[in-house]
Design a protein that fits this description.
Layout (H helix, E strand, L loop, with lengths): L1 E5 L2 E5 L8 E6 L2 H10 L3 E4 L12 H8 L6 E4 L12 H16 L4 E4 L10 H9 L6 E3 L11 H11 L3 E4 L10 H11 L4 E4 L5 H11 L3 E4 L36 H15 L2
Parallel strand pairs: 3-4, 3-10, 4-5, 5-6, 6-7, 7-8, 8-9
Antiparallel strand pairs: 1-2
Length: 274
């Protein structure tokens, strides 16, 4: 057991025993990162702006977490919103610069994806990222789900050859629950060579079915819940005025819920014993 202080509150950390099915929680705030740790996650994907699908986090956020955080931290490398994943040379320079700074300040891995105009994987840009990873593991994110499903096995092989350690995917569907059958095919064929990690729309209510169908060893979720018994208040205060800083400010900001993380970890542990 140990403790850390967050917002002047001392929280007890319970060391979780290792389990076969690992939960990666995507977070975009310090509070969400600590909630993921308290709930028993195995790793976090650190981003900014999850409302935009997750963008590159700040070095300050990473450095602050590394001072007291115990979980591995994989950092998103995505300089802007958009589903094209077509990056200019200037954008790639920004990505590689961010990568170098994040690695210098303790990143344990990275998350990246780049495509060509024909929706194939941009091997050249991926190779640039892999060469600068310094041997740290890199995940290819859900840009994979924008590629041609008919060529999915070919693309998995390419990513493995490039050196990626895992692929985050919803099985070419809006959510992992809808794409579970496709994920199962990918995992069955490639599990010895690369980790296929289901993600997108995974909740406590559908997790057991996704784990059963896909037979994955890792899964990815934000673990946020804004209704029901796991409800928590928004993690930021909304000022009572007519001014907003952006479209997302119309709605309250909710972060990762440690109770939701804990329930997911419990389900995963139970499934790993079957």
């Amino acid at each position: 057991m140990g403790t850390y202080a967050y917002n002047n509150i001392f929280v007890y950390k319970q060391k979780m025993s290792g389990h076969d099915i690992k939960l990666e929680v995507c977070v975009d705030s310090i509070g969400s990162a600590f909630a993921a740790e308290v709930g028993g996650a195995s790793r976090i994907e650190l981003c900014s702006a999850l409302g935009e699908g997750g963008l590159t986090p700040t070095v300050g956020t990473l450095k602050t977490l590394k001072d007291s955080f115990t979980l591995p931290i994989f950092c998103m490398l995505r300089p802007r919103r958009g589903t094209d994943f077509l990056y200019s040379e200037e954008e790639m320079q920004a990505i590689l610069t961010d990568m170098a700074l994040l690695r210098e300040h303790g990143a344990d891995g990275f998350v990246f994806g780049a495509l060509n105009t024909d929706r194939t994987i941009d091997a050249n840009k991926c190779r640039q990222v892999m060469q600068q990873s310094g041997g740290l593991p890199v995940t290819f994110h859900r840009a994979f789900d924008l590629t041609d499903q008919k060529r999915m096995h070919e693309h998995v092989e390419l990513l493995r050859e490039l050196g990626f350690k895992r692929i985050l995917s919803s099985g070419f569907r809006p959510s992992a629950a809808e794409g579970a059958d496709c994920l199962a095919q990918l995992i069955a064929k490639h599990h010895r060579d690369i980790i296929i990690m289901p993600g997108a729309g995974i909740k406590v209510a559908n997790l057991e079915e996704i784990l059963t169908v896909s037979r994955c060893l890792e899964f990815h979720a934000s673990a946020m819940d804004t209704a029901g018994e796991d409800y928590t208040a928004p993690t930021t205060t909304r000022m009572e005025c007519d001014v907003t800083m952006g479209k997302q400010d119309i709605d309250p900001y909710y972060g990762t819920n440690s109770n939701v993380v804990r329930k997911m970890v419990t389900i995963a542990n139970a499934m790993s014993c079957r």
